[in-house]
Design a protein that fits this description.
The structure is a single chain. The protein has 10 helices and 7 strands. With 267 residues, the chain is an alpha/beta fold. The chain has a single domain, classed as Rossmann fold, CATH 3.40.50. It has a 7-stranded mixed sheet with strand order 3-2-1-4-5-7-6, sandwiched between helices. Helix 5 links the parallel strand 2 and strand 3. Helix 8 packs antiparallel against helix 9.
């Protein structure tokens, strides 16, 4: 079954179940932090890929702008948005490392999302600063990235990694992040972390490993084999992960850009 056929058959949910099983976990985490709105809040999806999260945000009432350096992904995302008509979802090809060059992005977004992206960039400090600059005072950043202490889903995740970014293969330049590392980045960018949480536990990781192995035979075979099992993580993943003491794959933060500049220090 092709992805386009699946989209025609079931609509938006097709974007969440055609690939990595952990994509649905990230959307479920994100959706809980994106209340429905009719106020046209602007949302920046940094590293939007083929648009699943931007389109989901648009369905909830946000004016979503997705940016990625992959022109083919932009075309695919816009095609999906044009078909689903979720509201306002626009996609642009651009280098997310150069957000500071976009004067039209500075201080205009109420929300910025950055899901499983920062670990691909060598200069994560600059990315976080640029995301903060794109937010209005009072704006929020929703970010997920691999947790430093995760257990590798497949052996290739253990390395070797390169500290140099790769434009096409999407390798990670670092293993992941701890709470302290993310606090450091947010503080440096002038943002305050409000909440730290985690997503993608044992079941999602095992399904992802299974899909990666079966994909070596054929993608459609892997997809069909994993599809009936995708219902399990939303129902049981959190409970089972806690019971067996497994480590979550992603660490997730909600950060806030203060509305007020720091006041003068007391004499």
């Amino acid at each position: 079954m092709s992805k386009s056929l699946l989209l025609r058959l079931i609509g938006y949910p097709a974007l969440l179940i055609h690939g990595d099983p952990m994509v649905l976990d990230r959307w479920r985490w994100l959706k809980q932090r994106l209340p429905g709105t009719r106020n046209d809040e602007r949302l920046l999806d940094c590293g939007c890929g083929t648009g699943a999260f931007s389109i989901g945000a648009a369905k909830r009432g946000y004016r979503a702008t997705g940016v990625t350096n992959d022109e083919a992904a932009v075309a695919r995302a816009q095609e999906r948005a044009d078909y689903l008509k979720p509201g306002f979802a626009n996609f642009e090809a651009g280098d997310i490392r150069r957000l500071a060059d976009r004067s039209d992005f500075q201080g205009v977004f109420e929300i910025a999302i950055c899901l499983e992206v920062i670990e691909h960039l060598a200069d994560d400090r600059s990315l976080m600063q640029n995301l903060a600059a794109c937010l209005k005072p009072g704006g929020r950043l929703l970010l997920t990235t691999p947790y430093y202490h995760y257990i590798a889903v497949t052996p290739d995740e253990e390395g070797p990694r390169s500290e140099i970014e790769h434009e096409t293969c999407g390798w990670h330049v670092r293993r992941g992040y701890t709470v302290g590392m993310l606090q450091e980045l947010c503080q440096d960018a002038g943002m305050v972390i409000e909440e730290v949480s985690y997503c993608s536990g044992f079941l999602s990781q095992r399904l992802t490993a299974l899909m990666r192995v079966l994909t070596r035979v054929h993608y459609l075979f892997a997809w069909a084999a994993v599809l009936p099992l995708r219902i399990l993580p939303p129902l049981f993943d959190g409970l089972l992960t806690r019971l067996i003491g497994w480590r979550y794959y992603s660490i997730c933060i909600e950060a806030y850009k203060p509305r007020f500049a720091p006041g003068p220090e007391a004499d």
